[in-house]
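FAQ: What does a ligand-bound record look like?

Like this one, built around N6-methyladenosine-5'-monophosphate:
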Amino acid sequence: RQKVRCDSPRALFLHACARAMTSTRGCVRGVELHAHVGGCVRPETLRELARERGFESKCDEVLERAFSCAAANSSPGETLKRCFDVFAIAHAACDTPSAIRRVCAECVEDFRADGCAYVELRTTPKDLVGANGEFKMTKRSYTEAACAGLADAGGLGDGSDGRCVARLVLSIDRGRDDTKEKAMETVQLAAEFMHRGVVGVDLSGAPHKGSWELYEDALKEARQLGLGIVLHCGEVVDTKDEQAKMIAFKPERLGHCVYTVRDDDLYGRLLASKIPVELCLTSNVMTRSCDSVSEHHAKKLLRDGAPICFCTDDTWVFNTTLRREYAIACDAFGLTMNDIRDMAIRAMNFALCDEHVKIKVIEQM
Ligand code: 6MZ
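The answer part, i.e. the structure of the complex:
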């Protein structure tokens, strides 16, 4: 985190690139397809919510601890695991429907301010029980609040007014949703809230938890109900069997695919499937899934003409923005602003929203 924050010449250079990216002369409208609400909370909002709940000082401490283990050369898997401790802070701060509504609205505003034409946010509906055993929040009230947040930010338009369009994907969390029933409840809520901006279902969370078999039925049901499917795939080593099943399932998109690209057999299947891959450069480097951006698997995917899009994953946790990710990609892979614009337009074709919305947004872009 410190490395990303510091005022080194490289950090300043990236900042300048990112600024140029959306300057009036070189305007590139971004398309964000992989951003978790809980990882994109505004730091000042998080601090305010944490203060109200009496644990403000913990925010920085948890972030520092999570990423200091990367500096201490712990294994990549360990760094990724620590990352999930960081999300626990956001979950503790966003423990009411009104907090969820606020952070969802702010996420849309922030991506809009970052130059996005379209943002597909994802979040996990959660049941939360209060100290007296009563429900503080249910998956249903969570989903309602998230949809209301998108509406508050004016994100539910169809793109014809030129404003940033926002849609929601409901995540099944591999840690939290540990039964078939819990996964199915999320799918049913997603279907019920399609008229309020929900367009799909995601499988995410700590990748060493749960199993493909636990979620497959719920994901099949989601597809049956007309929802798009996006899956986190190949974030950790030794999950070859699961990754092969995910590719065979033919989701609308796959996220990360770090170890998928490293395995010749899986990589062949991925390329043949033509499934678009969401790539999160800073996230993968900070969680030590990749040693550096220049060694990121984006390079191989670009070389082979695979369908990809650059995304942020978690702007708060990894201290990044979509503009910044685009600037990093230009710097690391020799892409031009025109390449990025073309890629963003192509990414819009991978979005889960209705076709007429895609057309309107692409017109704007
Ligand atoms: C897998 C991730 C993730 O749902 O509370 N999440 N899952 N891999 C990642 N790579 C770093 N980054 C975030 O947002 C936070 C949740 O998103 C998932 C985790 O389940 C995390 O708890 P919501 O809005």
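Follow-up question: can I read anything off the structure? Yes, for example: DSSP finds 17 helices and ten strands in the chain.
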